[in-house]
Protein: 2-dehydropantoate 2-reductase
Amino acid sequence: MRFLIVGAGAVGGYFGGRLQEKGEDVTFLVRPRRNQQLRERGLCIHSIHGNAELPVRTLTPGQEGGPFDVVIVAVKAYHLDGVLEDLWPYVGEETMVLPLLNGMTHLDRLDAAFSPQQVLGGLCFIETTLNDRGEIEQYSSRHDLIFGERDGQDSPRVRRLEQALTGGQMKAEKSDQILREMWKKYLFISTFSGITSLMNSAIGPVLETKYGVGVTRRLLDEIARAARHREPSLDQELVDGVFQVIRSLQPGMKSSMLRDMEKNAPVEADHLHGELLNMASDQADLPLLQTVYTYLKTYESNRR
Structure:
């Protein structure tokens, strides 16, 4: 399979690098500045699962090179609209589009740009960032990529994709409930990023405070209430499972949103917490979620 990785940042660079390391045919679609950096230094991964330094094949928008079998979209949500038009030359009728963005509303934008039949469901669990040299630093034991057909079918194409994704220095898993998995991740990442960013701390010190566990749980419950306006099937068992995951995180783990804020970078306030507030018909009972969103929007205003 020919893979096009859209973005060679912390997430796209990591998973694309691991696929190339495994021997897959991988090309990165990047902006000119990142392209120059990769040409000069290669793709460098520092990881608890093994380091890698790889010469990589790149394209910049407009260069010929498609179509590809799989296009993995691994950009931040606020960059998505800017790359959709760039993807047209690389997406053919049989191309699978696999997004690894947080949240859910990006599916609507991808469906409109291509077709619902081409767009798979996908998500990842990984703690990773780019350092100031453009190198990928990956910290956590989890480096999981989960994917599947949105209708739950075990189709021949996702079986082929599973074969291509497995066997390297990453964990790839096919799911027949990928939309449920995406909602579960949405609840997790909105709570985890919200509380760690608001408290400007890794998760451990937050949960160790007198009220930290309770405040985190109330934030999760508000997020779940908001999300149920869009997806009523989000049952209490799922929410309880998300909370157990949060409580079991390594104490030093930080959300990527907090790491972005530490670098004075943009954050996904609208795509994550803002969209949750939009889902809720009555925002009056969501004070913690409103507080998180207000804090993030204030951060965005102050960084301009």
